Amino acid sequence: MNPITFAIFITSLFWLNLSDAKIGYFWHITDLHYDPFHNSPEFHRGCKHRGNNDHNHRNGRHRDHTCDSSWLLIQSAVSFMAERHPDTLEFVLWTGDILSSSMEHLSDEIKMEAVRNVTDLLSRTFSSQFVFPALGHNDPPPSRRLIDMWMQWLPSDALATFETGGYYTIEQSYSKLRIVVLNSVLWAGGAAKTDGPHRGRAQWEWLEHVLSKARRKNEMVYLVAHAGPGVEERHNAGSSSAAGGGELTPTANSNLVRIIKAFSDVIAGQFYGHRHTDTFRLMYNEGRPVSWALLAPSITPRGAGSTSNPGLRLYKFDTNNGKVLDYTQFYLDVTNKKGEVHWAVEYNLTQYYNLREITAVSLDNLSKKIRNYNDRTFLNKYLLALHVRHSTDVSNCDATCVHVHYCAITHAEFHEFRACVRNPASALASRAPHLSSAILLYAIVLLLCSRKH
User: Where in the sequence is the signal peptide annotated (predicted)?
Assistant: First the structure.
C-alpha cells in the first residue's frame, strides 16, 4: 500500500467512525446568581452603594455589570434555550450558584423560594429532559426540601447520596455515558471549618469507587461540579508574583487532580462554572496531556475581580461514548445601545480555534498558540472570549499577563502554577513537544511504506 492510499484509508476510517456517532446535545448553564429583589424598593445594597440609580435599574433591566441577575435576565436566558431546543437535546447541566451573594444573610425560607422559582422555570421549559444540578457555595445545603424540588430529575439512588453529601451519579441505561456530579463546596476552604471534612472524605471515597466501577463496566464519565481544580486567573493575570489559589483547598485540589489523572482513561470530559469566565484547564501525566476541563461563563454579568457578559453553552456530543464534538457559545450584550434583550451566537469552538477535534492533545496545542505573544491571533481570540466580549480591547494583556494565563491553563496544581509563573523557561521544559500514539503510528507506517517503493 503506497503512502497516499494509506492516508486515504486512515481518513476514511475517521469519517466512518464519525458517521457511526449518535449525535446528541446538552446545555450547560451556570452561576445565575438570581437576585429576587432586583426590581424592588429593597433593591440590595450590593448594587445600590455602587450608585446604580439609572432608569435601567429602576425599571428592572439588567444593563449593569455590578449587579446580579434579575428575573427578566433569567427568563430571557431560559426562553432562548427553549427556542434553540434541538430535537436531540438529552439533558441540561446546571452547575450551581443559583442565588445572589446578596442573599447570604436572608432567611432560609426566602432562599428556598428563590431556588424553587428557578427550578419551576427550568421544569416547565424542559419538561421532557432531565436537569442535573450541582451545588455552589451560594446555594442552600442538601436538604429534604431540595430533594422534593429535584426528585423529578434524579433517581432514588442519586437522591440518597445527594441527601447525605450533595453529590450523585447518573447511570444511563441506553448508553455508556455516566454523569458524576460533585459537591465542590465540601472541598472548599469554608467547609473545613464546619462539618465539611467528614463529608468531604466520604465524597473522595465515593468518587474513586464510582470511577472504578465505570472502568470495570467500560463506561465513560462526565465530571460535573460548580468549581473544578486549578487557580483563579482572574486575580492573578496581572502579576508575575501571582499567589495561585482557587476555590478548593490546596489539599483537595491536589487530590482531585491526582484522581483525574488516575482515571483519565474513563473521564470523557469535565464541566465546571464558578469563574464567571470562558476558559479551559488541562491535566498532564509525565508531560503528556491526559484530561481537559471546559469552564462555562456565568449568566450573571457581575463578577469578582472581573466582569463578563452573560453566556450560555450548547454542547454537541456522541451519545454512544460521551465524546464531546463541539459546542456553540451564546451571549447577551447587556450594554447594547438599544437596550434590547438579544441573545446571539458568540462563537463555535472548533471553528473559532480551528480545532479538528476536542481532546487533551488538541487543547494543549491550542494553549501553546495562545501563549505565542509574537503572533497574537489565538491570544486575542481567547481574551475576547474570556469575558464573553465584555471588552473588545485585548491589547492591555502584556507578556507577563499572557504567561500567567498560560500557566493557569496548563498547571492545575497550585504549587506548579506558582513555579510556572516564576520561571517561564521551566514551563516550556515541562511541556515538551509530544506526539499522540495514533499520529506516531501513522508516521511509522508511512515511513515503512515509502521504503518499499
Answer: 1-21
Type of residue at 81: M
- Kindly state the cell numbers that stand for 439: 499520529
Where in the chain are the domains?
Answer: 22-452
415/413 Cα distance (integer angstroms): 6
Average pLDDT, the chain: 84
How many angstroms separate the Cα of 293 from the Cα of each of 268, 284, 441? 10, 12, 27
Name the DSSP letter for residue 310: -
With contact defined as beta carbons under 8 Å apart, do 357 and 326 qualify? no
Sign, CA torsion 37/34/338/391: positive
Helix (H, G, I), strand (E, B) or coil at 103: helix
Q: What is the pTM of this model?
A: 0.86
- Residue in this structure with the C-alpha cell 463555535, named with its chain if needed: 348
Q: Are 385 and 329 in contact (CB under 8 A)?
A: yes
CA distances from 290 to 261, 267, 301, 317 (A): 7, 9, 33, 19
On whether the CB atoms of residues 259 and 208 are closer than 8 A, the answer is yes
- pLDDT confidence bin for 148, thresholds 50/70/90: very high
User: For 308-376, where are the alpha helices, taking DSSP H only?
Assistant: 349-352, 360-371
Question: Averaged over 14-30, what is the pLDDT?
Answer: 77
Task: Using the predicted structure, report yes or no on whether residue 53 has a pLDDT greater than 90.
Answer: no
Rounded-to-integer distance, Cα 344 and Cα 332, Å: 7
| CA end-to-end distance (rounded Å), the chain | 9
* 3-state SS assignment for residue 299: coil
Is residue 51's pLDDT more than 50?
no
Cα–Cα distance, 219 to 322 (Å, whole number): 9
The least confident of 38-52, 242-256, 400-414 is 38-52
By percentage, how much of the chain surpasses pLDDT 90? 62
Give the strands of the sheet with 130-133, arranged side by side.
130-133, 89-94, 23-29, 311-318, 324-332, 343-348
Cα distance between residue 260 and residue 222, in whole Å: 11
Architecture of domain 22-452: 4-Layer Sandwich (3.60)
Cα angle 273-277-279, degrees, rounded to a multiple of 5: 85
- Decide: helix, strand or coil at residue 52: coil
Q: How far, in Å, CA of 276 to CA of 75, rounded?
A: 19
Q: Which of these, 171, 84, 430, lies nearest to 287 by C-alpha position?
A: 430
